[in-house]
Amino acid sequence: MSAEKAATIAMRRAGYYSSNTIGAKRVIDKVGDLVVAAAGKMPALADGQAFAIADFGAADGGTSMDMMRRLVRAVRTTEPERQISITYTDLPHNDFSTLFRLSQGLLGPKTDAPLADIPGLFIFASGTSFYRQIFPDNSLSLGFSATAMHWISNRPCMIADHVQAVGARPAERERFRAQALRDWETILLARARELRPGGRLALANFCIDEEGRYLGHTTGVDMFDCFARHWRDLYRAGRISETEYVNATFQQFYKTPDEFAAPFRDPDSSASRAGLKLETMFTMVTPCTYAEAFRRERDAAAFAKAYVPTLRSWSETVFAGALDPARPAAERAAILDEFYGAYEADAASAPDGHRMDYVHCVMEISKAT
Ligand SMILES: C[S@@+](CC[C@H](N)C(=O)[O-])C[C@H]1O[C@@H](n2cnc3c(N)ncnc32)[C@H](O)[C@@H]1O
Q1: pLDDT attached to residue 108
Q2: Ligand 1 test: best mutation among 20, 68, 90, 312, most atoms within 8 Å of CB?
Q3: Which residues pair with 144 in a beta bridge?
Q4: Which residue is closest in CA terms to ligand 1's atom 10?
Q5: Does the structure show a pLDDT above 70 at 2?
Q6: Nearest CA owner, ligand 1 atom 18
Q7: Ligand 1 centre from 316 Cα, in Å?
Q8: Each residue of 77-135: pLDDT tens digit?
């Protein structure tokens, strides 16, 4: 992946990601039982071998930190002396410095002892994409990933009149789907090499569920339609060029549960031949924390002021990346402020329709012993 593409999907810096993504943490906490149970099903490790955990696409690690504490406790309940490693992986542009500060207790809540202070726990990070093999063959016990693998490795084309594949024209959407299915195979084969025999993956990925729901499209307004509409407004008003309008294309695709499961249903697929088996799969909707708070408090302005910065935390790099780099930085910043400002005014004027419920496909996958 080129540096430019990687930058497109980088998150904003300095703990901005974790503090604004309470919903993402909720998702991880909800799959905690599955993760802990998966760890309990592993064949015993040899003496002296570490229980190696990976968090693929961890961002600053803040959202998974409580779950990691729980997982470490669970491993130690049965094996008090077992050494454990956690390797946080993300793209090279990720804010690994914040991740290190959070795990060392230099940032974040002071309620728990820092993760890094747990005896016999070793924390590492890798800036290698999950589209490549990150760990040596047969070395990983448990691979975890939340809300990351919808980022595909490449944009097969720009989406001419929308921002995300969910609103693309059929021919565009098919190109994104083909890319996403190739990418899923790449992810699975890399993980198959890394997992030790009997190792497991616990994944919570954004999806389009059995009822056609996806992130920001459950009830009410479609969030990606809102992004597209406000971006189109800037184009129609002459604030951005046609190229800038078209270039705002999320490098993402939401697969359906059937698409996630397809490689496991075919005994001749490369994933099945590599020994991977789908143990469990279900979809889950995690309600938008901001919309829930609004339902209780009914303060439209406060809702929009909290909600839109959350959307901005993970989407801004896509719109910023679409703008002509020849524009002065202050001009680009003003366009982005105008864009998110319009979205905020929209959300404040009709708050009941806006919500960003998370829709996930949760999977537990094992590698043959
Ligand atoms: C929405 S965040 C999720 C962070 C965290 N896992 C959570 O659930 O809160 C998605 C993360 O995936 C990372 N990501 C996207 N593509 C990736 C890739 N190819 N390899 C590794 N990480 C990737 C992004 O950089 C980002 O930090």
Answers
A1: 84
A2: 90
A3: 55, 202
A4: 148
A5: no
A6: 129
A7: 15
A8: 999 999 999 999 999 999 999 999 999 999 988 888 999 999 999 999 999 999 999 99
User: How far is residue 141's CA from residue 353's CA, in Å, rounded to a whole number?
Assistant: 43
Residues sharing a CB contact under 8 Å with residue 299, sequence separation 6 or more, in sequence order: none
Pocket of ligand 1 (CB under 6 A): 9-11, 21, 24, 28, 57-59, 63, 89-91, 94, 129-131, 146-148, 151, 314
Question: For a pocket test of ligand 1, which of 2, 9, 179 has the largest count of ligand atoms closer than 8 A to its C-beta?
Answer: 9
Q: Where are the domains of the chain?
A: 3-367
* pLDDT recorded at residue 20: 60
Q: What CA–CA distance (Å, rounded) separates 56 from 53?
A: 10
The per-residue pLDDT for range 234-266, each reduced to its tens digit, is: 999 999 999 999 999 999 999 999 999 999 999
Written as six digits, the tokens of 282 are 């279900």
Distance CA 283, CA 308 (A): 26
Distance, in Å, from the CA atom of 13 to the CA atom of 52, rounded to the nearest integer, reads: 27
Residue 347: both structure tokens together: 């959300």
* Architecture of the domain defined by 3-367: 3-Layer(aba) Sandwich (3.40)
Distance from residue 59's CA to the centre of ligand 1 (Å) = 5
> Three-state DSSP class for 354?
coil
Distance CA 76, CA 279 (A): 24
Mean pLDDT of the chain: 93
| Structure-block tokens of residue 150 | 């919808």
Q: How confident is the model at residue 16 (pLDDT cuts 50, 70, 90)?
A: very low
Per residue in 323-358, pLDDT tens? 999 999 999 999 999 999 999 999 999 999 999 999
Q: Tell me the C-alpha distance between 220 and 6, whole Å.
A: 32
Cα-to-chain-centroid distance, residue 366: 21
First to last CA, the chain: 33
Closest residue CA from atom 26 of ligand 1: 59
Rounded distance between C-alpha atoms, residue 195 and residue 7, angstroms = 29
